[in-house]
Amino acid sequence: MSRSALRGSFLASVDPRVVDALTRRAVVQHVDAGEVFVSEMDPQWTGIVLSGMARVFLRTPSGRQVTLRHATAGGSIGIAAVFASGSISAQAITDCDLLRLDTHKLMTLAHAHPDLAMAIARELSVRLIETYGEIVIRAEGSVHQRLARQLLHLCSVRGPHLPLAVAMSHSEIADAVGSAREVVTRHLHEFQTDGMLRLERGQVTIVDPIRLHEAARQAG
How many CB atoms lie within 10 A of CB 182? Predict the structure, then answer.
């Protein structure tokens, strides 16, 4: 595994010899858009997104999916599994290449190498703050932010090999966001002008989910 492939990940600041020892046991995995590649049945899954974008979510007892955050290139998934079991799930929003790490090897190396342990701690902090940010957007975000986030959530519940599309009217989307149809329509047209989505009769097709994710993190 080349160092350039891990640029932007929590391993970028770790001693290359430690990274080599860790990635020697790692597996590069390709998943198609729409595929759920981490589930409650695999609580020890730990890895890094090499390319693409994935959604990290929880399932409620009623089966509802609650999105925690979106991971893009360099982002980790399941890093908390290094220290404790969990029940997160993850789904590819676009085609993704992932580096699945050997959790046991990661723990062993972290005990022996403080720089790796600190890198894991920093990554946990970053992902926790990122999750807090999602909660704030959901509760207090602008229409611009909430709409972008809601579109990403709605398009992601479709199955593999299906286009990233939301088959809902503007009024239905506005109800889901908690805003007026006219306001939502204006923002949808702005997103279309910026090349993030395409508006069709009764459907919104997501063209650039990564840029839409960035839009959700910006005030609008």
Answer: 9
CATH code linked to domain 142-216: 1.10.10.10
Q: What pLDDT is attached to residue 202?
A: 87
Q: Contact 10/119 with Cβ under 8 angstroms?
A: yes
Query: What kind of architecture, by CATH, is found in domain 4-138?
Result: Sandwich (2.60)
Dist CA 59 CA 67 (whole Å): 9
Spatial contact of 144 and 220, defined as CB atoms under 8 Å apart: yes
**Where exactly are the structural domains of the chain?**
4-138, 142-216
User: Which region, left, alpha or beta, applies to residue 22 given φ > 0 means left and ψ of -120 to 50 means alpha?
Assistant: alpha
Residue 191 has pLDDT above 70, yes or no: yes
The pLDDT tens digits of the residues spanning 98-137 come to 999 999 999 999 999 999 999 999 999 998 888 888 788 8
How many Å apart are CA 142 and CA 133, to the nearest integer?
13
At 98, is the secondary structure helix, strand, or coil?
strand
The two beta strands, 96-100 and 47-51, are antiparallel
pTM above 0.70, yes or no: yes
Q: How many CB atoms lie within 10 A of CB 188?
A: 19
Q: How far apart are CA 43 and CA 80, in angstroms?
A: 10
Q: How many CB atoms lie within 10 A of CB 51?
A: 14
- Please name every residue paired with 67 in a beta bridge, in sequence order, or none if there are none: 57
